[in-house]
């Protein structure tokens, strides 16, 4: 694919939304279409599922995992893969690593099963780079400025298991992951992400994006 796929991960309250916006602004200098999206909620179906998953009634862990996978399958097919094929820069606030951390570790489901489900839902599509914004759950929870959703209200033990699962994922895939200390000032975090992303973005200058009719742009 001609584009670049970047995801940002981490427990709630670490500043992903802020850093997604900063990375979007930086990436504009590289002359490509930029698609900023999120999971759950990056499609019409995803918006409906997001409401159920984060603000609805209690859902059994297996049902929850299947709902996240359904959101991801629609998201990849409708938004992410077409954008990458056009040569766009896709920046996603959460992707399949959140399922591996939240559903597998946080909900005590089998990691291998969640991984197979996620890879099936996405057709094996992984980001080229994933930034894990890491922070102690107690400190990140104190940053929240809105009412808790179902995930945020799951308790400190759930958040600590999820954080450790994210760190384990990063250790197993050091080529894709970069761990960033989210306790640092916003500008320090932004600089760390920007400096790492710069070579990936610069590489796009040596390839042609694709026009809407399927051919290279002039």
Describe the structure.
The chain is of the alpha/beta class and 218 residues long. It has a single domain, classed as P-loop containing nucleotide triphosphate hydrolases (Rossmann fold, 3-Layer(aba) Sandwich), CATH 3.40.50. 53% of the residues lie in helices and 12% in strands. It has 8 helices and 5 strands, in the order βαβααβααβααβα. It has a 5-stranded parallel sheet with strand order 2-3-1-4-5, with helices on both faces. Helix 2 runs antiparallel to helix 3 and helix 4 packs antiparallel against helix 5. It is globular and about 45 Å long. The two termini are 18 Å apart.
Structural class: alpha/beta
Counting DSSP E segments of at least 2 residues, the number of strands comes to 5
Instruction: Kindly report the average pLDDT value.
Output: 88
CATH class assignment: Alpha Beta
Parts with pLDDT < 50 across at least 5 consecutive residues? none
State the distance separating the first and last CA atoms.
Answer: 18 Å
Range of helix content: 40-55%
CATH topology assignment: Rossmann fold
User: Architecture, CATH level 2?
Assistant: 3-Layer(aba) Sandwich
Q: How many helical elements?
A: 8
Anisotropy-based shape: globular
Q: What is the topological layout?
A:
Layout: E1 4-9, H1 16-27, E2 34-38, H2 44-55, H3 61-86, E3 89-93, H4 96-106, H5 111-122, E4 129-134, H6 137-143, H7 156-172, E5 177-181, H8 186-203
Parallel strand pairs: 1-3, 1-4, 2-3, 4-5
Helix pairs in contact: 1-8, 2-3, 3-5, 4-5, 4-7
In short:
This protein is an alpha/beta fold and about 220 residues long. The chain has 8 helices and 5 strands; from the N terminus they run E-H-E-H-H-E-H-H-E-H-H-E-H. It has one domain: P-loop containing nucleotide triphosphate hydrolases (Rossmann fold, 3-Layer(aba) Sandwich), CATH 3.40.50.
């Amino acid at each position: 694919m001609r584009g670049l796929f970047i995801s940002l991960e981490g427990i709630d309250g670490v500043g992903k939304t802020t850093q997604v916006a900063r990375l979007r602004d930086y990436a504009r200098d590289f002359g490509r279409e930029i698609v900023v999206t999120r999971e759950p909620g990056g499609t019409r179906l995803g918006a409906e599922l997001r409401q159920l998953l984060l603000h609805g009634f209690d859902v059994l862990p297996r049902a929850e995992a299947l709902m996240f996978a359904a959101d991801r399958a629609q998201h990849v097919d409708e938004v992410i893969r077409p954008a990458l094929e056009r040569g766009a820069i896709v920046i996603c606030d959460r992707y399949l690593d959140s399922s591996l951390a939240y559903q597998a570790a946080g909900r005590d489901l089998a990691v291998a099963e969640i991984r197979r489900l996620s890879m099936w839902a996405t057709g094996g599509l992984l980001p080229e780079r994933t930034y894990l914004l890491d922070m102690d759950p107690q400190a990140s929870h104190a940053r929240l400025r809105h009412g808790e959703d179902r995930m945020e209200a799951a308790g400190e033990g759930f958040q600590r298991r999820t954080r450790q699962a994210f760190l384990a994922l990063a250790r197993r895939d050091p080529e894709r992951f970069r761990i960033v200390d989210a306790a640092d000032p916003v500008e320090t975090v932004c600089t760390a992400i920007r400096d790492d992303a710069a070579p990936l973005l610069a590489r796009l200058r040596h390839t042609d994006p694709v026009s809407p009719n399927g051919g290279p742009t002039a």
